[in-house]
Specification:
eight-stranded mixed β-sheet; FAD (chains A, B); Diverse_Acyl-CoA_DH (chains A, B); two-stranded antiparallel ribbon; 11% strand; homodimer; 19 helices; 12 strands
């Protein structure tokens, strides 16, 4: 029986028929790889996700982590799953060989990761945060920091976190107050409280490597005074063994609506519970230069944003497959007009409105998967493209797409989960079925790693205008290459190409109209409808890419691609018309309303 | 401090400034009432809801009902709340005086009910199901059934349920298999299983009155063979005291994502646990005529559908007010362009995108409240309008609006709850705040009492076409009276009137276009987008009514009404354009897709 986590067939189509993953093996960076190593990793990921991550999906929701005032307890299945995962080497699949990784393309590791996110979003967060942490240290840490902290993370012995928010400073990082005082020996002592720390405390691994934003007293005010520190839970001796307990301790856990398998902690730094070396404060090691912390953290943050979109997609995808399986099995009612009650009931997939809900989900989740993989492919280009211009082009295009790949799946794959519940009827609303948990788990994604509204400001306030709108221009240009390929095919593909072409024109014209008064308050008043419209345009582009790839190929799989594309172009893309109209009109309704009138 | 459950000021505006509730007191049916009795009931409802329902809102979510194999346990706060509620007489506020009710307009009791639904949707379900049950028996039961079962329900001693679904028959009631065998003495014995029974078993009251759909052997097949029975949990002696235990027993409870305070049970009838009178089967009393059960049940169902919409609205409303209060208190960030980190942080209501999310919510929940009260006013007209034509007009218009008032709040007030979470950021995703529970509770509403898709078939398949489209025509005609009033005012109101007028034209034209091939499969293939578009048109109408009422009045309250109307006309109504286009084009995408291609 086919998996209800993801579709192997769809992955093969996207990786090999569309994105030509094999071509990457011609590049020096990936020279040790081949179609066989790729498929081996994908098969392994499916197997481990199915056998070790999926089985405790509901268990870790029903038995969320708890804090006894001293220690954080997590169900044992999580530790076991992470051990198996690390043993397979999948956790370092795309890490460089220099630290023990397999140096596979991100395109392949992203596809592998999706199996784990679909199987168990909560458990997968531990290793995925860890690889983001390791990637940051690889880019900006010292060799000693890499040896001390990254290697054990690659081996699966340590996990990593990112500690940005504080109770008074969530989206507004300039207001953090955690301070890092120089200890005189090149190290620092940190004092402060961090909030919303995923994987912030647990005993799943020997040690936890916190990457912490803090301010060195006397530095510049605001974001320019933020530095980045490594703060391990346990100090690490020179020989790599664990040393003293550092003074970073959990002060409590957050109890969430979903995503419960992942510990989410309030952490106190330097509260005095421990005194490493006999001194107060949590020992921290400066990463890179002082006051450059936010810039370094954004390195991780951009990766995390793509990861959030990928997770949202994966949860949407499995919800789709589960509701499809249910719709094919569940008997209920008869076709319209067939009122003879002696006729047997039919599977609900026979009801048009159920097919509508399936096709909508399919268009959302397969469109999102295409975008996630497209972005991963761009990331690989930034590392491995033959020429400098190609690397820069990929970097800028990925920069333009980052707010979309973060926000679009976070919105529409929750919508997919909503439809998956609806297809299940009352059953879908019970905890006996998986879909209600997917809906709850997925609802975090528009919040963390930059809220939906912040992605909108990033797109219309930065990506659409920086360097004369170069980034957005590259996005439109890339989509237009698909328009040209589709036009050449004629038929439905050409019709879609015309629709997309018009929407791309509106994408740039609307950004210009929004900014035509030159006033950021006016331009950005409707940034969110703009983000949502451009998101739909980008997914329409992903669907055009897919039908072009499927052109001339026969069979149910390709017919499904064509049907989902038809759904997206007929039912979804037209939504963008009124959104672009609104933004282009510089509508002032939300800008002008007085808070007192609310 | 103003309540965060509902807005008293808004209720006063809608009831007295718009719907002229006082005018009802001139009608014989409501002659005992006055503005004072109305306001007294509203104040009492607010107080009891605030003091006795709201405090255990989260407790009953965290401690859902459980079944020990014998008995169903519900936290004691629920029983206490229901006792207080019954003591106040609010449970029979709009019931006829003949059975001990206060015979107030439904308009007033609906407003009162909203306080309870906002305070605690789960607890409020017990009395609200009971009044629906009582209303059905009052309309179709015998005098003996009314005396035996309705009076104790009015007194709060018994509660009621409706038992329709079975494991193999949810939306498809023609497939129920519960059978009712004549016992020879005019009573029946029932055998079968019922599923999804809200308030299906508990010990909150002395007795439970189940209204059960079953088939009498030998009757017609399908829905034409369905009869309705009263099946009490305990038989009732002639003197009103409780007699033997009837053979209706819980077989298990459903564990839901939300709405957990309301028991939801699988009930077995006649499984043999009890043998009342020494005979097998659950004793049932036929209501009205044999084989007319579905028609009677629809009497209750239509009321239940309006109640579902009202509940969805109330949960949306309180989420709005809670997120508004949070947005006014929570300090975070600085206005756009004010980057000086030494400036103090501002309340997040100062951020435009937060105001967007508040205004969106406001437009949804206040629009939904207006519709709920408008429908209640129509219901009162069906009972009390001076002339027969007026009563019939109200009945048909209410019939047209029923799928809208059920489905629109069930969709958009969940969307409001989603925005309420988003405004709270990470906090909104935790169980420390209320909004995540509202989101979970509210998600049931598009499922029960006829799914969203079934409402769509009802609107486009019945209400738009029966009697030459008379019902939909009356809806459009009623909305056009508001268009005329608004046009006469000029300014923004006249501009909105033009927009609504055009949308009303599309409402009828699109229904005609959908049906132009005469093929139900084609016409109804896009019934759901049609439902959603017409829902938005109806809410735009409700906003036009409100700004017309607010015309010329000054102050923050009226400015708020104007701002929310502007939001709805600028940001929301335009969504309907592409939806109408799609339906009118008789798009076949979802009709034609093969299940194999999904």
């Amino acid at each position: 029986m086919a998996s209800t986590l993801l579709s192997e067939r769809d992955l093969q189509f996207l990786l090999y028929e569309w994105l030509d993953a094999e071509a990457l093996t011609a590049r020096p960076r990936y020279a040790d790889h081949s179609r066989e190593t790729f498929d081996g990793a994908l098969d392994l990921a499916e197997r481990v996700a199915t056998d070790h991550f999926a089985p405790h999906f509901k268990t870790s929701d029903a038995n969320e982590p708890h804090f006894d005032g001293e220690r954080v307890h997590v169900i044992p299945e999580v530790k076991k799953a992470l051990e198996v995962y690390a043993e397979t080497g999948l956790n370092s699949l795309s890490m460089p060989e220099s630290v023990g990784g397999a140096q596979a393309p991100r395109l392949i590791s992203s596809a592998c990761n999706a199996w784990f996110q679909a199987a168990n979003l909560g458990t997968s967060a531990y290793p995925f945060l860890t690889s983001g942490n390791a990637a940051l240290l690889l880019a900006h840490g010292s060799q000693e920091q890499i040896d001390t902290f990254v290697r054990p993370m690659v081996e699966g012995r340590f996990t990593g976190t990112m500690c940005l928010s504080e109770p008074q400073a969530g989206s507004s990082l300039s207001d953090i107050t955690t301070r890092a005082e120089p200890a005189g020996d090149g190290t620092y002592r940190l004092f402060g409280n961090k909030m919303w720390i995923s994987a912030g405390d647990h005993e799943l691994t020997e040690n936890i490597v916190h990457l912490v934003l803090a301010k060195i007293p006397g530095g510049p005010a605001g974001v320019k005074g933020i530095s980045l520190f490594v703060v391990p839970k346990h100090l690490v001796n020179d020989d790599g063994t664990l040393g003293e307990r550092n003074d970073v301790v959990p002060a409590g856990l957050n109890h969430k609506m979903g995503y419960r398998g992942t510990v989410n902690a309030l952490l106190n730094f330097g509260e005095g519970r421990h005194t490493p070396g006999g001194e107060p404060g949590a020992v921290g090691y400066l990463v890179g230069e002082a006051h450059q912390g936010l810039q370094y953290m954004f390195h991780m943050m951009n990766g995390a944003r793509i990861g959030v979109g990928a997770g949202a997609m994966a949860v949407g995808y499995t919800g789709y497959l589960k509701s499809l399986a249910y719709a094919r099995e569940r008997l209920q009612g008869r076709p319209l007009g067939a009122k003879d009650p002696d006729q047997p009931q039919v599977p609900i997939v026979e009801h048009t409105d159920v097919r509508r809900m399936l096709l909508a989900q399919k268009s959302y989740v397969e469109g999102a998967l295409a975008l996630v993989l497209y972005c991963a492919r761009l990331y690989d280009d930034t590392l491995s493209h033959e020429d400098q211009a190609g690397r820069e082009h990929a970097d800028l295009l990925l920069d333009a797409l980052t707010p979309i790949v973060k926000s679009w799946p976070s919105q529409w794959c929750v919508a997919a989960n909503d439809l998956a519940i609806q297809i299940h009827g009352g059953y879908g609303y019970t905890r006996e079925y998986d879909v209600e948990q997917h809906y709850r788990d997925n609802r975090l994604n528009p919040i963390h790693e930059g809220t939906h509204g912040i992605q909108a400001l990033d797109l219309l306030g930065r990506k659409a205008v920086l360097d004369g709108g170069k980034r957005l221009g590259l996005l439109v240009e890339a989509a237009r290459t698909a328009v040209e390929r589709a036009r050449a095919l004629g038929g439905a593909e050409a019709a879609y190409a015309d629709l997309l072409d018009a929407a791309l024109t509106r994408t740039t014209e609307t950004a210009a109209a929004a900014w035509s008064e030159g006033d950021p308050a006016v331009a950005l008043a409707n940034a969110t409808p703009y983000l949502e419209a451009v998101g739909h345009v980008v997914i329409a582009w992903m669907w055009l890419e897919q039908v072009v790839t499927a052109h001339g190929r026969e069979g149910a799989f390709y017919d499904g691609k064509r049907a989902a594309a038809a759904y997206f172009f007929h039912h979804e893309l037209p939504r963008t018309g009124p959104q672009f109209d609104l933004v282009a009109s510089r509508d002032r309704t939300v800008l002008d309303v007085s808070p007192d009138a609310l």
